[in-house]
Design brief:
100 residues, alpha+beta, 4-stranded antiparallel β-sheet, 4 strands, 16% helix, 24% strand, globular
Length: 100
């Protein structure tokens, strides 16, 4: 899997997903943004997490996850629904980070 053309995975309210490379038709790296207010209103950002669907990892911030500081740790994403689980884990990770 080299990339996905549309982000069709469930996200909580006030979360948005944008491709990291905006000029490509398919992207393996997507940045998720969490905002305190409506995601359509420019305002304070609570945080970012980036997902690389090709490498099957995620990392905090707007970046290309490299696996060296991967927030996904040693978890492997395989089988049916691995993309949905990867997104859910990335969202949960950022929610935990901002609970403190």
């Amino acid at each position: 899997m080299s990339g996905i053309s549309t982000f069709d995975f469930p996200l909580p309210a006030n979360w948005t997903a944008e491709p990291y490379f905006k000029d490509q038709t398919t992207n393996s790296v997507w940045c998720l943004t969490k905002r305190s207010n409506s995601p359509t209103v420019a305002g304070p950002v609570d945080g970012f997490v980036s997902i690389d669907f090709q490498k099957r990892i995620f990392e905090g911030g707007q970046c290309i996850p490299n696996g060296l500081r991967s927030a996904s740790g040693e978890k492997k994403y395989n089988g049916r629904g691995w993309q949905v689980q990867l997104v859910a884990d990335a969202v949960a990770w950022l929610e935990i980070v901002f609970m403190d």
